[in-house]
Design goal:
Layout: H1 4-17, E1 22-26, E2 29-34, H2 37-47, E3 56-58, H3 61-67, E4 68-69, H4 73-83, E5 88-94, H5 106-112, E6 113-114, E7 117-122, H6 126-137, E8 143-146, H7 163-166, E9 171-173, E10 188-191, E11 196-199, H8 204-220
Parallel strand pairs: 1-9, 3-7, 5-10
Antiparallel strand pairs: 1-2, 2-8, 3-8, 4-5, 5-7, 6-7, 10-11
């Protein structure tokens, strides 16, 4: 019997692959997700997001292994454990031979890779994650950004998402867990190219403690 998660994921992937734009719940509020250039342009227009700010690529460890380069094996092991527990986005060097990155339309590539780096977002929830798996199995990637007006912080309830955004998307999926903070925080961002945190998000203290412990073990080893 097909689960509701699989039904939602299949519906989401089909819509995005056809050029649509969806509003869906992540583990840190609501996000806008897309695959094609016109839909990514709509994200920027709806949010009032400056063009120089990149979108993120929905990540799984399998996807990361294809799109990123230069991640040490022990760092990858730590990361796999971390993303299973906390919302986290990571910046890494792009893999110039990535088959998945080659699937990006030129505009999507320009907005989702900066220089030789790419930001991948973990903590998207089961529905978006499964849709991303479907996409990757078909040689494609899902990208997105938070469903809020630029600079206003994450929205943790569907009712909090501006009507100007809700009325403009092609699909809403209100399914999954969410982690909240009074400061309307999103995911923590870790730049693996410099091994520094660029943003403190939900559960930052726990992420930092784990990262520091990992580095301590690496140094003592």
């Amino acid at each position: 019997m097909t689960s509701s998660i699989e039904i939602h994921a299949n519906r989401l992937y089909t819509l995005l692959a056809g050029g649509g734009l969806a509003l869906a719940r992540t583990d840190t509020g609501y996000g806008l997700v897309a695959m094609k250039s016109d839909a990514v342009r709509r994200i920027y227009e709806l949010k009032g997001r400056p063009a120089h700010k990149p979108c993120v690529t929905v990540g799984t460890m399998t996807i990361l292994a294809d799109v990123a380069a230069g991640i040490a094996k022990d760092t990858g092991t730590w990361l796999a454990g971390a993303v299973s527990r906390w919302p986290l986005a990571v910046i890494a060097r792009t893999n110039q031979r990535s088959a998945l990155l080659a699937s990006f339309e030129p505009f999507v590539a320009s907005q989702c890779t900066k220089g030789d780096s790419i930001a991948t977002f973990f903590g998207v929830g089961e529905v978006i994650s499964r849709a991303a798996n479907l996409a990757s199995q078909n040689g494609q990637l899902i990208v997105g950004s938070s469903a809020n007006l630029s600079g206003t912080g994450n929205n943790y309830s569907l009712d909090a998402v501006p009507e100007s955004i809700r009325s403009a998307v092609d699909l809403e999926i209100d399914y999954g867990r969410d982690l909240r903070s009074d400061e309307k925080l999103a995911s923590t961002i870790l730049d693996l190219t410099t091994e520094t945190f660029l943003r403190q998000g939900v559960a930052f203290a726990a992420v930092r403690e784990s990262w520091e412990a990992f580095h301590g073990q690496r140094s003592s080893g």
